[in-house]
Write a structure and sequence with these properties.
With about 675 residues, chain A is α+β, with helices and mostly antiparallel strands. Helices cover about 35% and strands about 25% of the residues of chain A. Chain B is α/β, with parallel strands linked by helices and about 110 residues long. Chain B has one domain: 2-Layer Sandwich (Transcription Regulator spoIIAA). In chain B, the strands form two sheets. Chain B has a five-stranded mixed beta sheet with strand order 1-2-4-6-7. Chain B has a two-stranded parallel ribbon with strand order 3-5. The longest helix of chain B has 16 residues. Chain B is globular. Classes of the chains: A alpha+beta (about 675), B alpha/beta (about 110). Chains A and B meet through helix 15, helix 16 and helix 17 of A and helix 2 and helix 3 of B.
């Protein structure tokens, strides 16, 4: 640098002038008369002038406000006296009317004799700094307001463990003593609150952990001994440049919220418990009332039932009615929907069936059993208006198995088909009608269909929860899969087959939780091979019509005459014939109450020394051993002779029930072997 | 059943067709014969064609008998077959009404 510097005074002046013009700060030389003697380019820019020459000689006060002039004069005076730079702030008035905040440093340049010669003013535009300061003040005010207005207690602790900021709410919540606050020590603050905590050790351990792991955030609930609960949120305080300044803690009193939440939870728990009790009671009601146990002592068939509810309570129901004539009615239904409403509707439907059956029986001859279609139509008339009002419906199968006739009668109300597996060939077929579900159309008339069956035929009734069960891929279990399963398991009894169906469906669905109720009934007709007390001789089966009496007598007479009178004379044979006729008449009139479409089985056997004639029927029983008096002695003229004649005509009259549940009258007469 | 009625010496004689008088016919007998004998003071029923009778048939005859006697009349039966005789013996029907072996003896009794 030394080799290139100015040599002459003019060169030096030009150099200095150029250097000052290059400065960022404004520079002005003010004479003792407080007029400008020199200004640089930056000063010109500050006050809005293009050329310094325009300012030379002008009073410096032209560029300051009235107040600032006095301030500036004071500083100038001080600068004169002290001989060191005076720094102060003031406002400059620019040519265009702007006010420019400026920081001004004034130094005094003195002559050789020490007298002030000129003042050097270095002027810096502090507009941006002033704006930044104003912004900062605003932000601070905002933060202060937010901090104090917050419902949370707020504490900021720096990296050294000093409380650098907190609000009054924080102090009040924790009840921190003034001296602790004054100390600014977070440790002392922590110690001052431990006696208020339910778990002070856990609290302090958590705080230490968070201070040790500066980056972590946390949210905890802190129970206090006085019953309050604080929600505590903590996060690190990190600058925009990533500098870690400490940790902020927010505390919120959530005692009331917790109380409300706990009360709500208790209410939920109680409601859930009540619902669980309802479901349990409902399920028990369903098991006991809606799902009647199948008959176990019937000689003509085996039957099993199985129900797997989807929601604890469902709309499936079944009922078994075993009639005195060995017929079995099965009512197998499914009410739309699930839960208690469906169960209630099922109960109502089932009740209506039993009521309708009773209604049809009242006033009918004893022994008369209404036809399935009559029963269903009666229920339909009563129930369908209600079902339409409830916007619900019932799918149902009413099935009657009639072992004496070897027929099955079906009233199908939109239910899943009745599946039959033939006992001899194993062939599977489906029996179905075309009726609508109950509750769909008031004008529907329900028709029944009758089919023959044979011994060892097996029947399966399933709810749509079986056929419509879906696996995770959305595929239905379907009727074909069910038919295949029934065809395949020929070795299983009814109960095990029902279980096999249930297991197959649940395995197919892939879950024990079924979307719909799974209900099925399995029935197998069995070949009756029991000692029913039937006689080993001839048999005749006739209708319960009086016109058959002559045929009955002819049968008895023919049997005896074919065996040489069975050791009886004509008079004795007349007596036997009379007794048999009386017995048959009694069955028609009293056991069947005049019904002519029932059956009477007459068996006769003359083995040994006793001729036995047994008349078997399905009507009402007679009292065995009833005291029979002479109707003439009693003065009863026109009736009452039948029992008396039987007793007098043969040696013994027995009344009983065979192992098939049928009633019989057995007449015995000793004969000559 | 076609019943035949004739009046001999003031006695209404009813002859039954060949049949069994059991529960299947008793009602008809009671109704038809009951109408035929109404108002007659002397009635005799010929049971010679009744091959079999049971308690229902007996009840029908008793019913007719009661109707005749209710009007102050006399009631008799005759011509019983063996089977009917067995029944009458069994229930001791002679305690109910007079039973005669044949038509002549019945008419004679009516005249006496």
């Amino acid at each position: 640098m030394a080799g290139v510097g100015p040599r002459s005074p003019e060169e030096k002046l030009d150099f200095l002038t150029a250097a000052m013009d290059a400065a960022l700060d404004g520079i002005a030389l003010v004479g003792a008369d407080l007029r400008f003697e020199y200004v640089n380019a930056a000063f010109c820019r500050l006050v809005g002038h293009e050329r310094g020459e325009d300012l030379i000689g002008r009073p410096a006060a032209d560029f300051f406000g009235e107040d600032d002039v006095r301030v500036a004069a004071g500083h100038v005076t001080e600068a004169r006296g002290e001989g060191r730079p005076e720094v102060f702030e003031m406002s400059l008035h620019a040519k265009d009317g702007r006010t420019v905040p400026a920081e001004v440093s004034i130094s005094t340049l003195r002559r050789d004799d020490g007298q002030p010669h000129v003042f050097l003013a270095i002027v810096r535009d502090v507009t941006e700094r002033k704006q930044a300061e104003a912004t900062l003040r605003f932000k601070n005010a905002l933060l202060e307001t937010q901090r104090e207005a917050s419902i949370d207690g707020i504490l900021v602790v720096d990296s050294a463990g000093k409380m650098i900021s907190f609000n009054r709410r924080f102090v009040a919540m924790w009840g921190i003593p003034d001296e602790v606050i004054a100390s600014g020590s977070d440790d002392r603050a922590l110690q001052s609150v431990t006696d208020k905590l339910v778990d002070p050790q856990g609290f302090l351990a958590r705080v230490r952990y968070l201070y040790a792991h500066r980056e972590e955030m946390s949210r905890d609930e802190i129970p206090l001994r006085d019953g309050r609960t604080f929600d505590r949120y903590s996060a690190p305080v990190i600058g925009a440049d990533g500098t870690h300044y400490g940790r902020v803690w927010y505390f919120r009193d959530i005692t009331k919220r917790k109380q409300v939440e706990e009360a709500l939870q208790r209410a939920r728990d109680e409601a859930q418990a009540a619902r669980a009790r309802d479901v349990e009671i409902g399920a028990r009601i369903q098991q006991t009332l809606l799902l009647s146990p199948p008959p176990t002592a019937a000689a003509d068939f085996q039957v099993a039932a199985l129900a797997v509810p989807s929601w604890g309570i469902d709309g499936d129901f079944y009922e078994f009615l075993l009639h005195p004539n060995r017929c079995l009615d099965i009512i197998f239904g499914d009410v739309m929907g699930k839960g208690v409403p469906a169960a209630l509707l099922s109960a109502g439907t089932k009740t209506e069936f039993l009521r309708s059956l009773a209604h049809l029986l009242v006033g009918s001859p004893r022994g008369y059993i209404p036809q399935p279609a009559d029963i269903v139509n009666r229920v339909h008339q009563v129930l369908t208006p209600h079902l339409l009002g409830l916007d619900s419906f019932v799918t149902l199968s009413y099935v009657r198995f009639d072992p004496p006739a070897g027929k099955v009668t079906l009233v199908d109300c939109g239910s899943t088909k009745l599946i039959r597996r033939a006992g001899d060939s194993g062939r599977i077929d489906s029996l179905a009608g075309f009726n609508l579900p109950l509750g769909v159309a008031a004008s529907e008339v329900y028709a029944e269909a009758t089919f023959d069956y044979a011994a060892n035929d097996l029947f399966v009734l399933c709810s749509d929860g079986v056929t419509e069960a879906r696996n995770p891929a959305g595929e239905e279990f379907g009727l074909e899969r069910l038919r295949d399963l029934i065809a395949h398991h020929t070795d299983l009894g009814c109960q095990r087959l029902a279980q096999a169906i249930s297991e197959a469906v649940t395995g197919f669905v892939g879950s024990r939780s079924l979307a719909d109720d799974l209900t099925c009934v399995v029935l197998k007709m069995i070949e009756v091979q029991v000692d029913d007390g039937r006689l080993s001789g001839d048999e005749l089966e006739v209708a319960s019509h009086p016109k058959e009496l002559r045929r009955i007598r002819a049968f008895v007479r023919g049997y005896c005459e074919g065996r040489g009178g069975c050791g009886m004379g004509e008079h004795e044979l007349d007596s036997v014939e009379l007794a048999v006729s009386e017995a048959a008449s009694n069955i028609m009139r009293h056991a069947y109450h005049g019904r002519t479409d029932r059956r009477i089985l007459i068996g006769i056997d003359a083995g040994g020394e006793v001729l036995k004639v047994q008349l078997t029927h399905d009507g009402d029983p007679f009292a065995n051993g009833e005291q029979i008096s002479d109707p003439l002695a009693e003065g009863a003229w026109e009736s009452g002779f039948g029992l008396f004649i039987m007793r007098e005509a043969v040696d013994r009259v027995d009344y009983g029930e065979d192992k098939l549940g049928r009633q019989y009258i057995r007449l015995s007469k000793r004969v000559r072997a | 059943m076609a019943f035949k009625a004739e009046e001999v010496d003031g006695v209404l004689i009813i002859s039954t067709p060949h049949t069994d008088l059991d529960a299947s016919k008793a009602g008809e007998f009671k109704d038809t014969v009951g109408l035929m004998v109404a108002g007659h003071p002397k009635v005799a029923i010929d049971l010679g064609e009744i091959g079999f009778m049971d308690s229902a048939g007996l009840g029908a005859i008793i019913s007719v008998c009661k109707a005749v006697r209710a009007g102050g009349g006399q009631f008799r039966v005759f011509g019983l077959t063996e089977a009917v005789k067995s029944l009458f013996d069994l229930v001791r029907a002679h305690r109910l009404f007079e039973v005669f072996a044949d038509r002549e003896s019945a008419l004679r009794a009516c005249r006496d």
